[in-house]
Amino acid sequence: MINIIKSLLTIVIIMLSLSTCSTPSTHSGSSADKGKPDPTKWTVASTGTIFGTSTATPSTHTPNSVHAVAFGGGRFVAVGDRGKMAHSADGITWTAVSNTTFGESHIYSIAYGGGRFVAGGADGKMAHSTNGTTWTSVSDSTFANSSIIEIAYGGGRFVAIGGGRRIAHSANGTTWTASGTDIFAGGYAPLNCITFGNRRFVMGRANTTCAACNPNMGYSTDGGTWTGVINDVFNLRTNGINSIAYGDKKFIAVGGLSGGASPGSGRSLIAQSSNGASWTAVTSRNVFGTEPIYAITYGGSYFVAAGSEGRGYSANGTTWTAINSRVFGENDLVRHITYGNGRFVMVGDSYTRVGNNPMRTWFGKIWYSEGSAE
After folding, report:
1. What is the pLDDT of residues 7-59, one digit of tens each?
2. What is the reported pTM?
3. Could you tell me the CATH number of the domain that includes residue 189?
């Protein structure tokens, strides 16, 4: 009975973290720059019905989120619920992938490196592709039935993290080795986000109610051996770490606490670090409000981050300016951001109300930054 209760708690926490985590792809962006982008001007991309729609009450709707996006090999690839995936050369017009190999399983993460994309999702499923259109399933991700929440690439290898505090690494994206160390022992909060920079991987953990669950971050030079970090900016019992990016010689971690049914009672948090081990707080409430920040990336000399109450950009990760674009509605939720081909691309979901009843129509959504600032 105790094991059953633990399993149920693990599933609940994973689903809660995925509603706030951009899970995805490395957050350090792409080196394929075409001039300096303008992070203030945004447009909604054309995705048609690729990621589907559903009409239901908030408690019963079928997910239609776009969870993550990566850039590599001259194209963007976005992944989402029910095995959906799409690719685009410019981030503007998107084409569905006919066979993702995931079936109806949700896809939560994608990264590019070493000439290939690697995507992961529910039930430990994983696949790889050299072009983003033709995919081959990975026979053993080492995650068993646990969700693969995020994947990063750096230093010649992929590292995947997720539910059950599982970590695995791979040199080619096809053959995976589980990490032999568990520095996050205790509690059910999944490993939530990871990036690579300054010759090391840095990861963060979702929030948990476990009083003895420390550390809430970790770093590693090879993805196999990890050192735990207690980031006091994020109290593990209340504040999840949702996304991490590296740029301008520093790591920037974002997250916070959702106010839920009590507007104004949550918080947005940002922390910075030069090495992934020692962290200091960054003030950001005037840009991101009192709800968590869910996604961040770096590219074209800017950090760009998004939460449910605001979006912003920064040249150094410490001083932030609000993105006041009317393209973003009050029902829009950005889950992940990447950079490539001279522009930023955000992915997430939104909904429209159906009359005056509780019914809503839910759908995936993609936004792209327009042109160049120069």
Report:
1. 433 443 444 444 444 433 444 444 444 567 899 999 999 898 899 998 888 88
2. 0.89
3. 2.130.10.10
What are the b/e assignments for 313-343, b being 16+ CB within 10 Å?
Answer: bbebbbebeebeeeebeeebbbbbbbbbbbb
Angle at 295 between CA 97 and CA 12, to 5 degrees: 80
Both structure tokens of 350: 């939104």
What is the C-alpha to C-alpha distance for residues 27 and 312, in angstroms, rounded to an integer?
15
What sections of the chain are H helices per DSSP? Answer: 2-18, 285-288
- Could you tell me the residue range of the domain that residue 62 belongs to? 2-369
End-to-end CA distance of the chain: 62
Q: Classify residue 52: in a domain, yes or no.
A: yes
- Separation CA 329–CA 327 (nearest Å): 6
What the block records as the tokens of 52 is 């589907």
Q: Give residue-wise pLDDT tens across range 164-216.
A: 889 999 999 999 999 976 777 666 678 999 999 999 999 998 876 666 667 88
Domain presence at residue 326: yes
Q: 127, 133, 153: which is closest to 31 by C-alpha?
A: 153
Domain assignment present for residue 181? The answer is yes
- Nearest alpha carbon to residue 312 among 371, 268, 342, 256: 268
Question: Residue 194: beta bridge partners?
Answer: 203
Residue 72: half-sphere exposure toward Cβ, Cα within 13 Å: 24
DSSP 93: B
Give the number of domains in the chain: 1
Task: Confirm whether 374 is domain-assigned.
Answer: no
